[in-house]
Amino acid sequence: MGSADLAGLAIDRRAVLGGLGLIGAAPAFAQLGGGTPLVDYPFQLGVAAGDPDASGFVIWTRLAPRPLEPGSGLPRRPVAVRYEVSETASFAKLAAEGEALARPELGHSVHVTLTGLQSGRPYFYRFIAGGERSGTGRAKTLPATGAALDKVRLGVAGCQDYQAGLYTAWRHLSREDADAIFFYGDYIYEYGPRASLFSWESGETVPSVRQHNNAEVFSLDDYRRRYTQTRLDLDLQAGHAAAAWLCSLDDHEVDNNWVGDIDQEGTPPELFQLRRNMAMQAWYEFMPVRADALPRGGFSGPWRQYRFGQLLDARMLNTRNHRSDQPCNDRFGSWCDGVKDPKAEVLGRAQEDWLVKGLTDRPATWNALLQQIMVMDLDRARGEQKSINTDSWAGYLAPRDRLLQRLQRTPNLIVLTGDEHQHYAGEVRASGAAPESRPSAIEFVTSSISSGSDGPGVRREHAAILQRNPGLKYVRDERGYTMMTVAPEAWTAEMKTVSTVRAPGGTLATAATFRVPAGGTPRLEIA
Fold first, then answer.
1. Sheet holding 490-498: strands in order across?
2. How many other β-carbons are positioned within 10 Å of the β-carbon of residue 216?
3. Cα(84)–Cα(123) distance, integer angstroms
4. To the nearest 10°, the Cα dihedral for 17, 21, 24, 30?
5. Which candidate, 427, 444, 423, places its Cα nearest to that of 496?
6. Of 177, 252, 334, 433, which is least surrounded by CB within 10 A?
7. CB-hemisphere CA count at 13 Å for 115?
8. Where are the domains of the chain?
């Protein structure tokens, strides 16, 4: 009922223990290979699950008895790890069990792809190594493809700058009983330690809430240390343990605003590729994703389909790997003819064709794009000259309008986005379309977990951007997440905010709730 990714086969228990010199050990995992005892509790980075389908999901952990030391306090050889899966939190009866190898080549991380589980139900899972048990995680399998569902609950979150604030939102999200959580990207930030940051709440420079423990990251060891520091956060661990994640990546997992083989500092492509390759390996090591996400050719983060019965077809996209360079020298708030480049790409043709075919041949009641950068073509100018976010779809009008045209027959299309560090809700139209014309989709942009630190809620420029963009219906600058409730009759989005990320104890509020009725012209209603 499970397979250890990358081992390529189910691992025979006696073969593993024999190879590690543990046959006859009591308990079997009291020591590691060669008689080396564990120096400390090995599961300090928690557990996680992800990439669910109707018969299973991936479960993850990473052995790290001394997480911030080189090698995390482990020998440079494979370590056997047992896993257990149950329908109940007591683990009285196991639905699946087995062993996997935590390999040093992958930083002693473990990825087990479970299969043969029942569809549409929750399971509990845990790991055992060195005589110690991990904490318990919970995840749900997807419903069967043809299942008729009353609702699906989907959490959306991302952008968790460690230095900008605490991960309080994850503690609240872990209590939401989500069927799955879409993480849209920016799990880590690549920057070195910084003493201060600009606060939109006060309009002044304020001290960083906490600091990175190493300089800007370039090597595999650098990235591993950054993920390790991030993963030690207990609120984040609670978020991982609560539900299966649909894991995406954006730019800061590598370097700000990178695309393809290009970074924004002018690094020769062959050198940037080395950095990107190491970043992608570290991302794989720390995410609960399937074996096909292991970097090949320097890229990771494949596009995915998550089908929730007849109700929801959610397609997770990759908007970094196959994108052409940003126009206008990637200057935020600028505009140039490069925005209209007919040769520009965001998804690349193979990914775009896969998406269009899937959402037009056999659409569900609701169809969602899970992706990273805003699709709404917002004019962000404060004066007369139009300006855009060149790193968003607004900087790529040709592929943007082509995709909207190709998806025009897809019913009930919803776009879920992050990156902007604010909550937005609005209507998606082709560039230049009249405000009264039929929207192609409704887009919900989810604010950050911590990036941007505390926000003022309403910024002084919000009124102007709402006036210049009739399709934009809402914007708010506070940290938080969004809970999506998908039902046959309507899609409901609850935009959640926390009162502060600069100190413990931030309280949760629902800043706004929107409803999109099913069928007919897409429209956004205040619920």
1. 2-4, 109-114, 56-62, 47-53, 245-247, 180-183, 152-157, 480-486, 490-498, 508-517, 525-526
2. 13
3. 10
4. -80
5. 423
6. 177
7. 8
8. 2-140, 152-526
**Phi, psi (degrees; rounded to nearest 5) at 414:** -120, 140
Half-sphere exposure of 19 (CA within 13 A, CB side): 12
**Contact partners, residue 123, CB within 8 Å, separation at least 6:** 85, 86, 87, 95, 114, 117, 138, 139, 140, 141
127's tokens:
């790991």
Q: State the distance between the two ends of the chain, measured CA to CA, in whole angstroms.
A: 43
What is the DSSP annotation of 4-31?
A: ETTT-SPPPHHHHHHHTT-TT-SSTTSS
Tokens 């100018």 belong to: 381
Query: Tokens standing for 444?
Result: 């919900």
Q: Are 49 and 85 in contact (CB under 8 A)?
A: no
pLDDT in tens, 300-312: 777 999 999 999 9
Q: Which residues pair with 306 in a beta bridge?
A: 314
Cα gap 345→58, rounded to integer Å: 31
Tokens of 521: 């012209």
DSSP alpha helices (H): ranges in 162-292? 168-173, 220-231, 234-242, 269-286
Whether the CB-CB separation of 112 and 98 falls below 8 Å is answered with yes
Q: Count Cβ neighbours within 10 Å for each residue of 169-186 and write b for 16 or more, e otherwise.
A: bbbbbbebebbbbbbbbb
- 2-4 and 204-207 strand pairing: unpaired
Are 40 and 66 in contact by the 8 Å Cβ rule? The answer is yes
The pair of structure tokens assigned to 314 is 């959610």
Cis peptide bond prior to 27, omega within 30° of 0: yes
The rounded radius of gyration (Å) of the Cα atoms in the chain is 23
Instruction: Answer whether CATH 3.30.450.40 is correct for domain 152-526.
Output: no
CATH superfamily label, 2-140: Purple acid phosphatase-like, N-terminal (2.60.40.380)
Question: How many residues comprise the chain?
Answer: 527
Residues 247-254 have a mean pLDDT of 97
Q: What is the pLDDT of residue 201?
A: 79
Residue with tokens 């080549």: 105
Bridge partners of 112?
4, 59
What is the rounded distance in angstroms from the CA atom of residue 381 to the CA atom of residue 67?
Answer: 46
Tokens of 109: 């991380």
Tokens of 507: 């309280």
Tokens encoding 417: 């986005």
pLDDT tens-place string over residues 409-436: 999 999 999 999 999 999 999 999 999 9
Domain 2-140 matches domain 152-526 at the CATH topology level: no
In the predicted model, is pLDDT for residue 9 greater than 60?
Answer: no
Half-sphere exposure of 250 (CA within 13 A, CB side): 27
- Please list the residues that pair with 409 across neighbouring strands: none
Give 90's pLDDT tier (boundaries 50, 70, 90).
Answer: very high
DSSP summary character for residue 262 = B
Give me the sign of the Cα torsion angle 230, 234, 236, 241: positive
